[in-house]
Design goal:
By secondary structure, the protein is an alpha+beta fold. The protein is built from two helices and three strands. The longest helix is centred in the first third of the chain and has 16 residues, at 15-30. The protein starts with a strand and ends with a helix. The mean pLDDT is 86.
Length: 69
Amino acid sequence: MFAVIRHYHFNPKDSAEIDRRIREDFVPIVKKAKGFVRYYWLDTGKGEGASFSVFFIGLWLHYARKAIV
């Protein structure tokens, strides 16, 4: 498994539009990615948000990490 956590800052007035775009535009795209497991979006309502993406990558990630280290 491979997970990515991201933190965002934005104008609180744009919160509803950002939520809509993530739900309607981004999530359908990321769901098509190889190994996709789950995507979570959290909007604090105060101009901050966080995303948590999970992918099942398989053995190639294990070997790539060994090659880098």
